[in-house]
Amino acid sequence: MPPRVLVCDPIAAPGLEALRQGAEVDVRTGLAPDALSRALAEVEGVVVRSETRIGADVLLAAPRLRVIGRAGTGVDNIDVEAATERGIVVVNAPAGNSVSAAEHTIALLFALARNVPQADASLKQGIWDRKRLQGVELAGKTLGLVGLGQVGAEVARLARALGLQVLAHDPYVSEERARVLGVEILPLDDLLARADFVTLHVPLADGTRDLLDEARLRRMKPGARLVNTARGGLVDEAALVRAVSEGRLAGAALDVFQEEPLRDPSPFRHDRIILTPHLGASTAEAQERVAVEVAREVLAVLEGRPARYAVNAPLLPAESLAVLGPYVEVARKVALVAGQLRAGQLGEVSIGYAGDIAAHDTSVLRAGVIRGLLERVTEERVNIVNADLVARRRGMRISEERGPAPEPYHNLVTVRLRSASGSVSAAGTLAPDGPRLVSVGEYSFDVPLESGSLLLCENTDRPGRIGAVGTLLGSFDVNVSFMNVGRHAPRGQALMVLVLDEALTPDQLRQVQGIPGINAARLVRL
Predict the structure, then answer these.
(1) How many domains is the chain partitioned into structurally?
(2) Same domain, yes or no, for 410 and 355?
(3) Which terminus of the chain is more solvent-facing, meaning fewer CB atoms within 10 Å of its CB: N or C?
(4) Is 231 a known active-site residue?
């Protein structure tokens, strides 16, 4: 008997046809929560878009459910953690709308350059004013891409065909990948200073919220134009309106907003600001692609095959689960630390497995490392199914080493990142209370990798250094939950590591860096 799949939101007909190749499909849209719970009790799979919410409460009523499919990229309407706890695989379709989102970006570039919406509105009011609506050509101009994932790479391809010189900022794309795409990699501030047009293609996360704030908008080239088709919240909207109103920027085009749907467009009612209602993926082709893509993913899970775009990690083989399972989070968090300590463009990634874990297929640990490196810079949820694909698409060069674990460790995961600016390494292991960070570079210590932030201070080992840092943190009302020090020799160079309950602001971090005897201070968000 074929598995049953419930489709709760409208999806394109080709997606339904693909689902029916391997499942009995029941289309029931607009279900109230109680009706949804009853319907889920009888099915093995469910497909949603953005309208239906699949929360922990309805999952309790779904004992047979094995897979949740999201016909699109985001999974904000799905409780992924609750699904994972119940062994339910969540899949999505992150690649289906890349072309549409890229084309909409290009459309907005043209609209900005040639004043298309303004010309349409003016002429419909009976005004023939060609001089006021004179535009600029794209050919020969410089485009700056912030983010070089799937959408950013497609925009780069289209832009080069239009004769634009393309710059990009993405610390997690290799120089080799950039050369293949024909783009020049730059630090963000340098890109902003040089680009005539800037487009955004990064996810919204702690490190990207208000990425273009008042200060960075002022660093943009005078007369530049900005396009955001990625996520609302990447740009300080009030600061952007001021920049356009004051003439520092020649215009802006926004497809996404801090709050959606946009209820009050009045702050954006400026002749040189173009608005569209989140149309990046709104094409017939994109909707068909994501529908077919998610249908294939759902059927793969139901048939026991690997899903290419699993959002949550699939179950490990039974023979490896006991040994490797607990170390997946160690690998992810060690990579998260190393990635935030890295300086310069990412070059080679070297992963070391030491101890009993080295005797197993460590692809799941490699996936954990890749996830830790990329989870703050991509919307793709990286796991054992798609990790190598995601890394390959970004041109990441990954090498692996295996060997015995050094005393006193039973197992050890080490991540070393190399760039033109040098290399950084971090190593971790598993303790009864969870993952532990046991070294950074040549410094050894023992620090829990729990939630919160790490403050790492390189300093000369002298009396009073720890007290000075602690006193300053106390004045910030920032609580320290743990502290340890690694050092080469008494009164030599040392690395002080503090686990903080609250993250420091940039200004607070600068004050820590200014303490006498502190050579460098870095903040790592866990």
Answers:
(1) 4
(2) yes
(3) N
(4) yes
Task: Encode 428-464 in three state secondary structure.
Answer: EEEECCEEEEEEECCEEEEEECCCCEEEEEEEECCCC
Catalytic residue among 81, 137, 176, 260: 260
Angle, helices 98-114 vs 116-124, to 10°: value is 60
- What CA–CA distances, in Å, run from 88 to 24, 187, 404? 19, 40, 36
Rounded CA-CA distance 367/372 in Å is: 9
Same domain, 116 and 219: yes
Residue 386: domain span: 315-427
pLDDT for res 97: 87
Single-letter residue type at 444: S
**3-class DSSP state for residue 13?**
helix
Residues 182 and 307 in one domain: no
Asked if 412 and 487 count as a contact pair (C-beta separation under 8 A), the reply is no
Does residue 255 fall inside a structural domain? yes
Name the residue with tokens 């215009």. Answer: 251
Considering 427, 460, 482, which residue would you say is the last residue of a domain?
A: 427
Residues 472, 418 share a domain: no
Mark whether 117 and 75 lie in a shared domain.
Answer: no
Check which CATH number belongs to the domain holding 10 and give it: 3.40.50.720
Can you tell me the distance from the alpha carbon of 493 to that of 6, in angstroms, rounded to the nearest whole number? 61
Residue 238: both structure tokens together: 């009030």
Q: Does the annotation mark 104 as catalytic?
A: no
pLDDT for residue 206: 78
Instruction: Tell me the Ramachandran region of residue 115: left when phi exceeds 0, alpha when psi lies from -120 to 50, beta otherwise.
Output: left
Distance from C-alpha of 132 to C-alpha of 465, rounded to nearest angstrom: 63
CATH number of the domain that residue 500 is part of: 3.30.70.260
- The one catalytic residue in 49, 231, 296, 394 is 231
What residue ranges of the chain have pLDDT lower than 70? 313-321, 380-381, 383-385
Query: pLDDT tens across 134-144, in order?
Result: 999 999 999 99
Positive or negative, the CA dihedral 302, 308, 309, 315 is: positive
pTM for the full model? 0.78
- Give residue 381's pLDDT: 62
- 361 and 332: one domain? yes
Task: Give yes or no: residues 466 and 385 share one domain.
Answer: no
Last residue of a domain, one of 398, 427, 456: 427
Residue 485: is it exposed, middle or buried by C-beta count within 10 angstroms (0-12/13-18/19+)? middle
Catalytic residue, from 216, 278, 376, 525: name it.
278
Q: Do 50 and 160 share a domain, yes or no?
A: no
Distance CA 424, CA 416 (A): 6
Does the annotation mark 137 as catalytic? Answer: no
